[in-house]
Amino acid sequence: MPTIDTIIEDPRWTVLDLDTLAGRAATATLLHLTLDPADFEIAILACNDAKIATLNTEFRDKPTPTNVLSWPSEERGAERAGAIPELPEPGPDPELGDIAIAWETCEREAAEAGKAMQDHVTHLIIHATLHLLGYDHERDADATLMERIEVEILGKMGLPDPYRDS
Q: Could you give the count of Cα atoms lying within 13 Å of 2 in the half-sphere of its Cβ?
C-alpha cells in the first residue's frame, strides 16, 4: 500500500475511514499500472466545500467548489493526445502529490447518482491518483484513455462503471 498521509479537516470524513478507502483505491490504481504501491506517497486533505472552493479559486481560477483536486509532485502528462504518460520510477522522493476532496460535493453527487458514498469517493481517489500519475481529461483522446482505466480499476474492485447509467 502507498503511504497515505491524510489530514481530516472536516470531521464528517471520519465515518468513511478515508485512510483505508484511499489506500485501497490508490493501491488498486498503482497495481493496475504495474507500479509497486509501497514505493509511493500521497497526501490527502479531506475538507469541505468552502475549503475546496478556496483552493479551486487559488489554483484554477474557478471560484466554485468541486469534488476533488490534485497536484502532482511533477509534470508527467503525455505530449501526444491519448498517449500513456511517463510513469514515475521508484526513488529517493516517493511523493506522487496531493489530493483535496470535499465532503458536501461528494455527498451530493453520490446521492444524485444513487451510489454509496464509499463507492463514489473510491472512484474519485482513483481519478485523482491517475491525475498525480499524469493522466488527464482535457483532450478527448486523453479523457477516453483515463475513463477506460478508471472503469478497469473499478471493475477489478467490484464496483460499477460510473460513466454508464445504472
A: 31
pLDDT digits (tens, 9 = 90+) for 56-86: 999 999 999 999 999 999 999 999 999 999 9
pLDDT at 166 over 80: no
Q: Is the pTM of this model over 0.85?
A: yes
Q: Hey, CA dihedral for 145, 150, 152, 153, is it positive or negative? A: positive
Q: Which residue has the cell 489530493?
A: 99
C-alpha dihedral sign at 115, 122, 46, 105: negative
- Mark 74-105 as b/e (b = at least 16 C-beta within 10 Å): eebebeeeeeebeebeeeeeebbbbbbbbbbb
